[in-house]
Specification:
Blueprint: H1 7-15, H2 17-26, H3 34-41, H4 45-57, E1 61-66, E2 69-74, H5 77-92, H6 104-109, E3 111-113, E4 116-118, H7 120-131, E5 135-138, E6 141-144, H8 146-153, H9 159-163, E7 171-174, E8 181-184, H10 185-197, E9 201-203, E10 210-212, H11 214-223, H12 228-246, H13 254-264
Antiparallel strand pairs: 1-2, 3-4, 5-6, 7-8, 9-10
Helix pairs in contact: 2-3, 3-4
Pfam families: HTH_20, ParD_antitoxin
Protein name: ArsR family transcriptional regulator
InterPro entries: ArsR-like_HTH (IPR011991), HTH_ArsR_DNA-bd_dom (IPR001845), HTH_Metal-responsive_Reg (IPR052543), ParD (IPR022789), WH-like_DNA-bd_sf (IPR036388), WH_DNA-bd_sf (IPR036390)
C-alpha cells in the first residue's frame, strides 16, 4: 500500500471540469454563493452543492455565513497558489481552453491571484524588488532584506502587523500568463491592498482584472522601477509566449517596443 501525501485525491477534485471552473472563479478573492458558482460551472444548483461539499471536505474550500446566506471561498492562499501554478503548467504544455480573446490583454497585464497582484505587473513588482536588493531569491524561496523593509516602510507598509501574523511574509507564486514568479504571502497582499485602499487601483466587477488610475500607474512605476533592458527582455519573452499560444511564433519588434516605452514615460 502506498504511503505519503495522496495527490490522487486532490487531482480528482480539481480534475472535474465543473469543480475546476468553480475554483478558477474563486481565484479572484471574492466569496461566491452556491447559485453563483452553479452558473459559473454550468450545472444545476443541486449538482453544484454536491461539488462544493466535495471541495470543502477535501480542504480546498471554506464556508462563510452572513445572515441567511452562505458564501464559499478558497480555504487559504496555498490553494490559490496551487491553482495558479497548475494554470502556468497547463499553459506551458499548450493545454489552453481558448485562444487569446478581447479580455486577455487586461488579464495578462494585472489581475488578482487570490489576494495578491499577478500578471505582468505582479512579475514586474517582484523583479524590481529583487533588482534593488529589497528581496533575495534562491530557488523558489524569497526573503525580505533589511533594505527592503526600510524601502517599503517608507511607502506605508506596516511590517510589525505583517510579522505578527502566522502567514509567510514572502512567498513565490508561479504566474500562469508570464511563466515566471510573482510575489505572494502577506507582503504581496499588503502591496496590492496599498493601491486598492488609496483608490489608485480597483478590481473590475465580476472579473479578476485589476486596473490602475493614471496616478496609480505613475506611483506603481515609481515604486517598482525597472531597467529598459529588462523591459526589452520581458517583451521578447511575452512575444514568444503569445506566439506559442496562437500557434504562430512572432519575431520581437524592437522598434515597436521603443515606441511603447516612449509612450509609457
Amino acid at each position: 500500500m502506498a504511503e505519503g501525501p495522496d495527490i490522487a485525491r486532490i487531482a480528482s477534485l480539481i480534475g472535474d471540469p465543473a469543480r475546476s471552473n468553480m475554483l478558477l472563479a474563486l481565484l479572484g478573492g471574492r466569496a461566491l454563493t452556491a447559485t453563483e458558482l452553479a452558473g459559473v460551472a454550468g450545472v444545476t444548483l443541486q449538482t453544484a452543492s454536491s461539488h462544493l461539499a466535495k471541495l470543502e471536505d477535501g480542504g480546498l474550500l471554506c464556508q462563510r455565513k452572513q445572515g441567511r446566506h452562505r458564501y464559499f471561498a478558497l480555504a487559504d492562499d496555498h490553494v490559490g497558489a496551487m491553482i495558479e501554478s497548475l494554470m502556468g503548467f497547463a499553459a506551458s504544455r499548450g493545454h489552453l481552453r481558448h485562444r487569446v480573446g478581447p479580455k486577455e490583454p487586461a488579464l495578462r497585464k494585472a489581475r488578482i491571484c487570490y489576494d495578491h497582484l499577478a500578471g505582468d505587473y505582479g512579475v514586474r513588482m517582484l523583479d524590481s524588488l529583487i533588482a534593488r536588493g529589497a528581496i533575495e531569491a534562491s530557488d523558489d524561496a524569497l526573503r525580505l532584506t533589511d533594505k527592503g523593509e526600510s524601502l517599503l516602510s517608507g511607502h506605508g507598509i506596516d511590517f510589525a502587523a505583517l510579522k505578527a501574523r502566522r502567514r509567510p511574509l514572502c512567498r513565490a507564486c508561479l504566474d500562469w500568463s508570464e511563466r515566471r514568479t510573482h510575489l505572494a504571502g502577506s507582503l504581496g497582499k499588503a502591496l496590492l491592498t496599498h493601491f486598492l485602499d488609496r483608490g489608485e487601483a480597483r478590481q473590475v466587477e465580476g472579473s479578476r482584472v485589476v486596473t490602475f488610475s493614471p496616478e496609480g500607474e505613475r506611483r506603481f512605476r515609481a515604486m517598482f522601477p525597472i531597467s529598459e533592458h529588462h523591459l526589452a527582455v520581458r517583451s521578447l519573452e511575452n512575444a514568444l509566449i503569445e506566439g506559442e499560444q496562437s500557434g504562430e511564433p512572432r519575431p520581437f519588434d524592437f522598434e515597436a517596443f521603443k515606441k511603447r516605452k516612449r509612450a509609457s514615460l
